[in-house]
Amino acid sequence: MNNINKTLYIPLYGKAYVSKKGIILQDKKAEEIWAKEAFPLKGKSKSKWLAYYMGIRSAVFDNWLRRQMTAMEDVVVLHIGCGMDSRVLRVGTMNHKWYDVDFPEVIKERKRYYTETDDYKMLAGDARNCDWLKGIPAGKRAIIVMEGVSMYMTNTEVKAFLTTLHNYFEEIAILMDCYTILAAKMSKYKNPINDVGVTEVYGIDNPVLIESDGVVFVKEHNMTPQEFIEELKGSEKYIFQKLYAGNFSKKLYRLFEYRG
Fold first, then answer.
1. Which pTM value belongs to this model?
2. Fewest beta carbons within 10 Å, which of 111, 189, 194, 218?
3. At residue 136, does pLDDT exceed 90?
4. Cβ-proximal residues to 224 (8 Å cutoff; 6+ apart), any chain
5. Could you give the CA distance from residue 239 to residue 248 in angstroms, rounded to a whole number?
């Protein structure tokens, strides 16, 4: 795998870590895969604080997705940059058609642990080259999650991707996390992804700047809701809340919803 693909092991470790502790996220598949793969993370990428953050981030995405899938009938679900994530198992397809999308080498690895069904497929592809969309029926309504993806794409590439999705589907709802410009600058010197060799990332401060024709910014979501922080114990809860949540967190990391 290239260095960007190796970053998938950081959230995988985080989800396995919190799941094993019985907090925030129940993810037995992450525990299973991590136990077998045990990719050699080091430094900040194996921090318990980052693990808590990864677990909470995934739980926020899961909850948003459940709400959208319940509210909308007969939709396509796209999980862009799925890595080894078991979101399809945690959320369930709810009789929708679900597509997990990632680079060919990631999908090859993923197929060792996941099995396709009538409602669940895995597609090899890149968000910057959308030939893989041909494997999905056009004209449907689509719910899209992009977790840990946008920071590896330029703002121009993200905007072009949103335009492509808008043109292909009848209606779209998108949730994506983004680095701020400050976080992108800091990432060259201090970011867990550096531990797997990634130094080039991108950020955005104004979510309106990546709106495209027909795709508009709807709202910003809280990346670290208090309900999940409350699952931490004692001093860990206090430290996490002070250092990794709230206004300080927003200076580095944002969560945006778009519709089109």
1. 0.90
2. 189
3. yes
4. 53, 56, 244, 245, 246, 249
5. 12
